[in-house]
Amino acid sequence: MPVYSFSPPFFSLAPGEQVQVWNAQQPTPGNVAGAISQQLALVRLQTQNGTPFNVSGYFSGAPGTFEIDVMVSDDDNPAHYQTIANGNITTVDATNNTFHLDGILVSASFVALFLRTRTNAVNVTAWIGR
Fold it and tell me: What pTM does this model have?
């Protein structure tokens, strides 16, 4: 999956779906153009409050000190994305280097991941699901 796309078409994510946003990639930490994952448009259902989603992923090895920010926006402008409450992923399972976050109380139109920091040069793979 490519990094952030500045032009349509955008991938969409409806309840019951999951999309891989990084595939064994090494985004450049802190570089907005190279550190944001592929963005996804969150499909709103009239019968559902908000647009809840989850994030799962893993590193190919120990990432060292790292931070992945789970970010949302109501329009697809990189400057408008904001990290969700408690959306800073900074720890992994010590055995498998996996991470998971549930974005339950979220109401947004777009979601993306931002690799703010990473000490060790290891690959990251991540999915966003609903």
Answer: 0.92
With b for 16 or more beta-carbon neighbours within 10 A and e for fewer, the 60-90 pattern comes to eeebeebbbbbbbbeebeeeebeebeebebe
- Classify 11-129 by CATH class: mainly beta
In the chain, domain spans: 11-129
**Does 6 have pLDDT greater than 90?**
no
Q: Considering all CA atoms of the chain, what is the largest pairwise distance in Å, rounded to the nearest integer?
A: 43
The two tokens of residue 21 are 């946003």
Give the pLDDT band (50/70/90) at residue 3: low
Helix, strand and coil percent figures for the chain, each rounded to 5 = 5, 45, 50
